[in-house]
Specification:
single chain; Rossmann fold; Dihydrodipicolinate Reductase, domain 2; 2 domains; six-stranded parallel beta sheet; 13 strands; binds NADPH dihydro-nicotinamide-adenine-dinucleotide phosphate; binds N-acetyl-L-glutamyl 5-phosphate; AGPR_AS; AGPR; N-acetyl-gamma-glutamyl-phosphate reductase; amino-acid biosynthesis
Length: 341
């Protein structure tokens, strides 16, 4: 399969390269970076020496590359302008940005502060959370890959919301992300001296992942969904840790419920009762590890979810979606264990 990557010099782009370059069923034929066009990929990323023998290209040239599938690992507002030319030619696309994730265009425009230039493809796009939409993803031409926070939060709440066991009007997600979540672009708040040895919340009054998570949860239930979502910046490189709270409306064996819901899911691991999953247990992997608790047997379910924001939260999930779309084994190239310690 011939694969192209637009935005190959960013963090999710290099993660796509790390995971795809070792596969013998995939030929990477195109990697773009406007700033790096003409330079060798392994000059920018020596980690790929011996694995990727390509130069960065200009994104405009991808239309001539005749790819089976193209990834957009670009900032929000890019794919909606560039991908339609490929989509109209029949190329399949996985967009890692938020351009095609929200079905309500007015809501997207409010949260992203831009006019949407391609609502017709938003309608046709399939949201790329395989644990919810596996069949639709397999036949989609355009997949909107979920955001990093939305992946962990939706997977953690999924069994509870789907089974109607919680008050969906009072859900709480307290979530922490490593700094690569902010991308590779230079910015003062992301400097080592600014972000390390410190910890803070941000976006408390509103983060653009709120409508995405609420849209996903609403698709799991006929009930009204309302979420309080507070993101935090953790002084680590990779990893998301979500602590999710929901009021139970009945007595239920939560451990059994979670184990049954994810029994056939290759990339969701329900840990034994009482576990406290760590971000390092998923570093570099496509796994989301969950643990479900009911402290003191009172009526609140507390779900802990960890994932690597660059893998299950971005590039790994994008490849999981690619595998489904191209009729390849879903887990192909994604089963390596975490790097420890
Ligand atoms: N980082 C994360 O953990 C996650 C990120 N995402 C989303 O994935 C996307 C990529 O994120 P990330 O890799 O972190 O971003 P980076 O900022 O690290 O990289 C962005 C890439 O896009 C390219 N790019 C920028 N502007 C354009 C443009 N107008 N046309 C073509 N290429 C462009 C850049 O190269 P150049 O400018 O040289 O062309 C670079 O290769 C974003 O939409 C992000 O929100 C989603 C989930 C998690
Ligand atoms: C730590 C950090 O800054 N994280 C990013 C989320 C990254 C992501 O998933 O962004 P998209 O939805 O745009 O794809 C943020 O809060 O903006």
């Amino acid at each position: 399969m011939r694969i192209g990557i637009i935005g190959g010099s960013g963090y999710t782009g290099v993660e796509l390269l790390r995971l795809l370059s070792v596969r013998d069923d995939i030929e990477i034929v195109f990697i773009s970076s406007r700033a790096q066009a003409g330079t060798r990929v392994d000059a920018l990323f020596p980690s790929l020496r011996g694995h990727v023998d390509l130069l960065f290209s200009d994104p405009d040239d991808v239309t001539d590359a005749s790819c089976d599938l193209v990834f957009y690992a670009t900032p929000n507002g890019t794919a909606m302008n560039q991908a339609p030319a490929l989509l109209d030619k029949g190329t399949r696309v996985v967009d890692l940005s938020a351009d095609f994730r929200l079905k309500d265009i007015a809501v997207w425009e409010r949260w992203y502060g831009m006019t949407h230039t391609c609502p017709e493809w938003v309608e046709k796009a399939v949201y790329g959370l395989p644990e919810m939409y596996r069949e639709e993803i397999a036949s989609a031409q355009l997949v909107a890959n979920p955001g990093c926070y939305p992946t962990a939060v939706q997977l953690g709440f999924l069994p509870l919301v789907e089974a109607g066991l919680v008050d969906t009007g009072s859900l709480i997600a307290d979530v922490k992300s490593g700094i690569t979540g902010a991308g590779r672009g230079a910015s003062v708040p992301n400097l080592l001296a600014e972000a390390s040895d410190s910890f803070k919340a941000y976006g408390v009054s509103g983060h653009r992942h709120l409508p995405e998570i609420e849209q996903g949860l609403a698709n799991m239930t006929a009930e009204n969904v309302s979420l309080t979502f507070t993101p935090h910046l953790l002084p680590i490189i990779r990893g998301i840790h979500a602590t999710l709270y929901a009021r139970l409306n009945q007595d239920v064996d939560l451990q059994k419920l979670f184990e049954a819901r994810f029994a056939d899911e290759p990339f969701v691991d329900v840990m034994p009762a009482g576990a406290h999953p760590e971000t390092r247990s998923v570093r570099g992997t496509n796994m989301c590890r969950l643990a479900v608790h009911q402290p003191q047997g009172r009526g609140t379910a507390v779900v802990l979810a960890v994932e690597d924001n660059l893998v299950k939260g971005a590039a790994g999930q994008a490849i999981q979606n690619m595998n489904l779309m191209l009729g390849l084994p879903e887990t192909k190239g994604l089963l390596q264990p975490a790097l420890m310690p």
